[in-house]
Amino acid sequence: MKTELTGMTLEEMTAWAKRQGLPAFRGKQIFQGIHRGADFGGMSNLPAALREKLAAEAIAQPAAIQTRRVSALDGTVKYLFSLPDGNCVEGVLMKYRYGWSLCISTQVGCRMGCRFCASTLDGCVRNLTAGEMLGEVLAANRDLAEQEAGEATREEPPRVSHVVLMGSGEPLDNYDQVTRFLRLLREPEGIRLSLRNVSLSTCGLVPEMKRLAEEDLPVTLCVSLHAPNDEIRRQLMPIANRYSIAEILDACRFYLRKTGRRVIFEYALTEGINSGEEQARELAGRLRGMQCHVNLIPLNAVRERNLKGVTEETVSRFLRTLEAEHISATRRREMGDDIEGACGQLRRSAMDRRGAGK
Length: 358
Prior knowledge:
alpha/beta
């Protein structure tokens, strides 16, 4: 089995190089090459014989772009990344005024069972390694550089400036590898991405939320709430049978105290379940006094689920009600609707095609 080097810190890479009988500076060269998005063959500062040996024994770039779809509506790019073991995960690259934001996956599938999500339909196959998560970012950076290669006026190619852990999987269900990935993002000799530009989404694993608050990893915590009370939440999210909204909000307040970062609450509006004015007022009552923001999401219909989205009128009414109650809220900008941009859709269709022998 090949050794995956992508998940190593510079210190670990240097130690690994020494164990291979190489001088320490080779470890640094390999580390820097990996974070520039190069495979071993592209590390021209290494001797040819060493490049061949590394290619035979190790992995530098564990996520390769298998499918690339570009939205004709807004330029959003949807990726299907293939992994060394044949599994695949999704990523979504979005252009904002502040730069490029990449939504990455943290697991192959998901075991949380949320009724509105395609990622969880076949359960969780396995956790991603920290190196595979970083590999998603590096693959997107390579793609950005290739797409912009013709722009001679650019001093440096564009690259991912913001990362969102909101693709397939529950990040806090893969806690150790996710926190390792976050530390890799800010390695001084690596891609050096500020963790203040990283958002981590969770369905509400309370012990892990509190543990994360103690890690000195100042990411923005996004909580998939989707309901103003436990009764409604249990209809949508099995995790609600384990942790109550009161426990989740207590963990959010703890995170706020420890990090000083406001919490984002994701709220997918579902017809006939959680989208009425009464639910908006109840939600406002729950959140009043907390440093937070509500991100309203019109539900993306999943054909295997019997849930319906809402009208724009319903979204606007819910938003106005929250604002009247002095709760910071916005309607999330929808991107990539024409390329199966929502979580799990592209991977699901690829699995369906594979199962049909196409």
